[in-house]
Design goal:
single chain; mainly alpha
Amino acid sequence: MNNWNNEYMAEYRRQEIIKQMEQVRLEKLAQSSHVYHPGLFTRTMFNFANWMIVTGKQLRKRYEVPTANCNHSPKSSFAR
């Protein structure tokens, strides 16, 4: 039997796996060092969302129907 070919292929595959593992390690290292810089669209949408939230709170304060205080009982009876 030709065991030399089997051993050669096993060693070749082992080296390929080691190269792939090193590549994955380098990619993870590069991704972790990347600082997030949002683009123009992202910044614009973030500011627009904040504006909508602030405006919505102001509009709610301005136009919300005040609630009635039902804790006070009437001084006199309704039935007379």
